[in-house]
Amino acid sequence: MINIFSGNAEKIVAICERDCIGLKAIEPLISYGIQYDSIAMYWTQTIGGNVTAFISKKYNDTVAFLMKDSDAFEIASFLKVIGYYSLTTNSKKLIDYLTYKESDTDVPCFSPSGYIMRLPAGSEYIGTVTDISSKIFLNRQEDCKVFYETLNENFPGNVFSNYSDWYVDISHRVRHDTMDFAVVLDGNCKATASTLVKSEHSVLLGAISTSLDVRGKHYAQTLIELFCSKYRNKDIFIMCAKDKVTFYEKQGFKNEGIFYSI
């Protein structure tokens, strides 16, 4: 049975935070709680009194974290009812239900899967870094626009098109200490990285990008090292494309398997 979540947030966080997709799912819950239903809503699936899935929908982006013994068909049916703009999940079965083709003329909207990389708590980051401490700026409000513009430059179409909405979200999360962002400022060229989610035991890194003119200077790896050192007592997750797996393995990350997106 799927119900709107309004219960014990600490319990849900404890259940989800050790898994990368679970951590991503609880980001809005950690950042906003349950009182901002115009921004984020949450649901749980329970079977036999046990929570078997947690679903969050922040703006139009949905994350579905399915646990052992979850009913993927029920969740797929539910998601078709509430609708979603994008979906991230750890369940291929859920994706199969959502992209089932009634006929050969139907075109599924399944996106290529990515990979989850993890640097276990206490592990040493072994990437190549450079001494640019004077050029790194962390969580400065005046750098939000630089962060936003650099991400849009390097990942066109994958960042909020509305800067005002994006800024409200980022500034809220930084103020509430559920994320960090860092920029490298080197003339007109920039690099970025962020802890997209921070919980007691885990961190999800993302928004890792480098402007074209400074690629090869190890700026991105230096920012990754900054956060891996800062949160060395936590599991560090990164979600990446297949062609980046070897890149992160060389930095000490372990391949934890596939995530799925629509």
Question: What distinguishing features does this structure have?
Answer:
262 residues, alpha+beta, twelve-stranded mixed sheet, 31% strand
Helical amount? 25-40%
State the order of secondary-structure elements, H for helix, E for strand.
EHHEEEHEHEEHHEEEHEHE
Distance between the termini: 24 Å
Task: Give a short account of the largest sheet.
Answer: 12 strands, mixed
Structural class: alpha+beta
The radius of gyration computed from the alpha-carbon positions, rounded to a whole number of angstroms, is 19 Å
How does this structure look, described?
By secondary structure, the chain is of the alpha+beta class. The chain has eight helices and twelve strands. It has helices at residues 9-16, 20-32, 72-82, 92-98, 144-154, 163-175, 219-230, 245-249, and strands at 2-4, 40-47, 50-58, 61-66, 86-89, 111-119, 136-138, 180-186, 189-198, 202-210, 235-240, 254-261. A twelve-stranded mixed β-sheet has the order 1-2-3-4-5-12-6-11-10-9-8-7, with helices on both faces. Strand 8 (180-186) and strand 9 (189-198) form a beta hairpin. Helix 3 crosses helix 4 (92-98). The model has no long low-confidence stretch (mean pLDDT 91).
